[in-house]
Structures are given as structure tokens and as C-alpha cells.
Amino acid sequence: MGLLDRVGRLIRANLNDIIEKAEDPQKILEQAIIDMHEDVIKLREAVTLAIASQKRSQQQYNQYQSEVNNWQSRAQLALQKGDENLAREALQRKKSYQEQANIIKVALDSQTAQVETLKRNLIQLESKISEAKTKKEMLIARKRAADVNKQLQDLINGINTTGSIAAFERMEEKVLVAEARSQGLAELAGADLESQFQALEAGNGIDDELEALKAQMLGGSAQPQGQLPAGEAPAAPETQPQKPKVDTELEELRQKLQKI
What we know:
Strand content: under 5%
Oligomer: single chain
Number of strands: 0
């Protein structure tokens, strides 16, 4: 029994889902208006029948009342003529018609109330139809707007900008890396050029200093041999000649340069 309940529930759920998807609000509302118009037609027919029945009852009641009045007049006439038996018969007939008129009067009152109720219901239903038509147009417009909004949302949700944005970010990263690499190479090239100029300038300074040193040394050795500066006495002759001090310094300087 539990399995049958589950199967039945599943079938109902699937049917409800199919019906829910198949329902078109516009068609459903239009069908509802058509059904209401059919109800109005039926109600008008009922009102028409009720009014016809009321009129028949009214006619019967009027006839019975006319007979009542007629037999009342005949009873009076019989009494005037002195015929009591005839007057009694006339009153008996009057009573019979009065009883029938009373019965018809009860039915007539009921029919009159029923007709009034049916008329009010008909007016209300016609008013509801008018309101339903206006509301139908409003609901259809809202449904169309909702459908358009849903389509736009589906379109927006279907657009995948993640890949495009990621591609832009990758390209931007590559451009930044290329710019940094180019800037680094430019800085390295500038530094290398600067170092070359610094080495050249340093070399020129050493060469200039070397030339100045040579000129100074050559200027000191240009004096004639055998002459002494003023105010100096000739030195005593030595047994062995000594190597000049300048040559010793030059030799030491040459050895240092070779080590470098």
C-alpha cells in the first residue's frame, strides 16, 4: 500500500508539473472570461424564467381575486333579493377562490423575492465580468513584462565574461612584464655605458698623471752633469756608483703595475 501511495503521489506530481508548464496565463484568463459570460447567459435565462413564472402567478392571483370580488358582489345581490341560500352559495364560491388566491399569493411572494435575488446576482456578475476584463489585460501586460525581464536575466546570466576578463588580465600582465623587462634592459645598457665612460675618464686621469710624472722626472734630469745647484758644495767621490733613487721608484711602480 505504501508503494502504491508513492507511485500515485509521483504520478500526481508529474501531472501537476506538466499542467503547470502547459498553462498559459493569457489563455486561462480568456477562458475564465468566456466561462463567466456563459454563467451570465445561464443566469439571464434563469431570471427570464423566474420573471415569466412570477407573471403567471400574478395573473392567476389577479384572476382569483377578481373571482373573489365577483362572488362577493353576487352574495350581496342575492341578499338584496332576499335569497339567502343563493347568497350562501355565492359566499362559498368566494371562499374557495380566496383560498386559492392565498396559495397563489404565497408562491407569488416567493417568486418575487427569487426574481429580485437573481437580478442582483446578474448585476454583480456582469460587474465582475467588466472588472475581470480590465484585470485580465493588466495581468497579461504584467506577465509579458515578467517574461521579457526573465529573458533579459537569462541572457545576462548566459553571458560568461569571466574568460574575457581573465584574458584581458593575462594580456595586461604580459604587457607589464614586457615593459619591466624593457626598462631593465635600458637601465642595464645605461649602466654599462656609464661604467665605460667612468673607466675611460679614470684611464685618462691616470695617463695624464703619468705624463705629468714623466715631465717632472725629465725636467729634473735635464741639468748638465758636473754642475750643482747654487749654494751646494760638491760631494765627496764614492768608491762605487749608486743607482739613482728615481730609477728605484720607477722600478717599484712598474712591478706594482705588472701585478695589477
